[in-house]
Design a protein that fits this description.
Layout lengths: L3 E6 L2 H4 L12 H4 L2 H4 L2 H6 L1 H16 L5 H12 L3 E6 L5 H5 L4 E3 L2 E8 L5 E3 L19 E5 L9 H10 L2 E5 L11 H7 L3 E6 L11 E4 L2 H14 L1
Parallel strand pairs: 1-2, 1-7, 2-3, 7-8, 8-9
Antiparallel strand pairs: 4-5, 4-6
Helix pairs in contact: 6-10, 8-9
Bound molecules: ligand BJW.
The site of ligand BJW has 35 residues, from helix 1.
């Protein structure tokens, strides 16, 4: 049994809940140019377009439920006696809705807004527009979705890297391994001496870097993996 676990999740863990992934053949980036909606330059060029995109995504996640893979990770966190950190690249809230608590949203969250002027973060569940002003800001700054776009620094990197340096099991779930720094976590965990496991529908970009892999839908392979781990 390991003593310290870090788990990284990506869009694939939420796919069976009904949230589209990014790079699968029918994924979001097959229909929409990421430069227009997921870069600071895209937001500066056409903020209304970016607000429309995230209003649609925020609305979409309201009707979905956590699946068996989210539930299994919450169960692992509760049952495991050692150090545990779940790092998700996902901006949906399905992990916390399934019961996960030791969780970092490294690419931000749909249900929060970020003030361009004061940097304050506010819970946000409705639509956002060019007229949306920061409720707690003396400068009445404009709000943007609290998500990390390309070229921006992901959140809580110091905490994540400390956990990677101290872990003896690293598990990557439902991510294509295309986007850094998350795609580099497996190397950091390996350098720290961790056993590394990939659970994904298909081999990811960095599949060779994992000691073990299991390929299949997350709702099957994640609960199976958790049961084996807790039973060991
Ligand atoms: C299933 C399944 C099922 C399906 N069961 N599995 C050149 C080299 C190295 C790095 C760079 C470079 N050029 C630029 C960079 C940096 C850049 C980057 O990595 N670019 C690459 C594309 C090359 N990264 C950044 O800019 C990051 N910041 C950064 O590096 O900061 C440092 C810095 C700052 C300033 C200056 C210089 C350096 C920020 C990245 C932000 C990513 N943002 C997004 C949008 C977030 C908001 C939103 O949701 O709209 O985050 S993009 C998108 O990709 C989203 C995701 O979190 C992220 C990762 O995607 P993920 O989760 O892996 O999804 P998919 O679709 O790719 O994969 C799904 C997988 O699931 C697939 O494998 C399926 O098979 C599988 N699957 N169904 C199990 N049922």
């Amino acid at each position: 049994m390991p003593s310290s676990i870090v788990i990284l999740t990506g869009a694939g863990i939420s796919a069976e809940s009904g949230i589209a992934t990014f790079r699968d053949p029918d994924g979001i980036w097959s229909k929409i140019d990421y430069r227009e909606v997921a870069t600071p330059q895209g937001f500066a060029a056409n903020p209304a377009r970016v607000h429309d995109f995230y209003n649609w995504r925020r609305q979409n996640v309201k009707s979905v439920e956590p699946n068996a893979a989210h539930v299994a990770l919450a169960r692992l966190e509760r049952a495991f006696a050692g150090e545990f950190l779940l790092v998700t690249q996902n901006v949906d809230s399905l992990h916390e809705r399934a019961g996960s608590e030791r969780l970092i949203h490294m690419h931000g969250q749909h249900d929060r807004a970020l003030c361009n002027a004061c940097g304050g973060r506010t819970p946000w569940h409705g639509e956002m527009s060019l007229e949306t002003l920061c409720p707690g800001c003396e400068q009445a700054g404009h709000m943007r979705p609290d998500v990390v776009w390309f070229g921006e620094m992901p959140y809580e990197m110091d905490r994540i890297q400390a956990a990677l340096r101290g872990c003896d099991l690293f598990v990557s779930i439902g991510t294509s391994g295309n986007v850094y720094p998350a795609a580099g976590f497996v190397r950091e965990a390996r350098a720290a001496g961790a056993r590394t496991v990939e659970l994904n529908l298909e081999p990811s970009q960095g599949a060779d870097l994992f000691h073990e892999a299991e390929h299949g839908p997350a709702t099957r392979i994640v609960p199976d993996f958790v049961e084996r781990l807790l039973g060991a």
